[in-house]
Structure of E3 ubiquitin-protein ligase NEURL1B:
Amino acid sequence: ERRSVLAITEPPRFHSQAKGKNVRLDAHSRKATRRNSFCNGVTFTNRPIHLYEKVRLKLVAVHHGWSGALRFGFTIHDPSQMSSDDIPKYACPDLVTRPGYWAKALPERFAVRDNILAFWVDRHGRVFYSINDEEPILFHCGIKVSSPLWALIDVYGITHEVQILDSMFAETMTTARLSSARLSTCLPQSNHDSANFNNNELENNQVVAKIANLNLSRVPGLPTDNHIIPCCPNRRQRAQGVPAFLDTDLRFHPTRGPDVTFSQDRMVACTNWQESNRTLMFSDRPLHVGESLFVEVGHLGLPYYGALSFGITSCDPSTLRTNELPADPDFLLDRKEYWVVYRAFPVLNSGDILSFMVLPNGEVHHGVNGASRGMLMCVDTSQSLWVFFTIHGVINQLKILGTVQSSPVTVSPSGSPGGSQYDSDSDMAFSVNRSSSASESSLVTAPSSPLSPPISPVFPPPEPSSSKNGECTVCFDSEVDTVIYTCGHMCLCNTCGLKLKKQLNACCPICRRVIKDVIKIYRP
């Protein structure tokens, strides 16, 4: 019956009118390309999708440098009835907070060029997806199947271009096969995802309740009782990228999130992979300029979500209390101290060794297993700086291996030691809080554009009047038309520049110098 329906049904295409302002379609409406920025890429199918009909998308182009990947799901709202004002910048959280929209993010590890994503909904309102026709992954529950459903596709973040392929019909998920299906527990990977996660948290609980026959003990490598997973398993320490002699005077500070357990010597931090919400932990002393910190990551090796975030602060952890420590370190950015958070590390494996070093010019560089990954951020070295971490999910352990005081590093004219200015191959996603003793702080978030050290700006030759001047580094939407005084960086649109100027202790998103004024530039 499904095959006969498919034979008389035209393959789905992208809706020619209901789309974000950055979406461009080809002549056949089978290929959608996001032209600018990382957002405004929401699209829909031109017709409703049948139950069990697979919406098949080929990831034609993936451009690294942003955070987050494709968002996809379904809606009961007919795109033909939508106006351009009804289509927001983001599917998550803007659309999923409205009734009748269901969407989540594709994990970035699956956002690989030429991968084929297929997703479908069954008669029970469960959404599954698969990558390259591998085993299905349960993605959603509670979809309203009594109404027609259009596919919702947000060409977001690193996903730059997708193509709709011909439809296929999925097999019915029997109880036995559902037991072997993986449950997608991918938590948010960016600030925009957090709202999506909060809105779907209740739904995720319903997912677990509705698939009581999903036996997690059948997942390869997971013990029958996942609560007795060893917190700190003994395994051979990897020596790759670690100096022969390390100082071991830096440990974790006793002040920590309630979901973290320390070893007796406070060199190892562990969590329960299912209860790892408030896991903030600090170093017990400041990290010195020129000093390298080495840590080892512990990973359960399961196909579920895991994340590590790293940050630097001028706040002495001894002045904090456990009940003040949030689950998301971004909430600390409103405090009066200096805070910088970085969370876009690449996929980590068990035993990976990370290194972090603060250079005299304020650059913070990192490496993985002895290989340099470039600059993470630029910080104010005039203050004492403590490091902090959070770990979540299957990344359940962090071990401090030690520190080493490095010899002075020669900084190349580009701003990074011996190479290009940004050698990092991971996505840049961090938040910065720069404040003094004031009770308020200025907050700048930049999903892609890395911070540069304070250097004198060098202006390129004037461009022709017909050319664009790039995107604003705050909204990533409008064109740059404003220069900052006194640093001279031209990186804002006038609207964002005026808003930023009004903030207390406002600083340049590029070099983080104090903003004294913003000047709009008029081109001939």
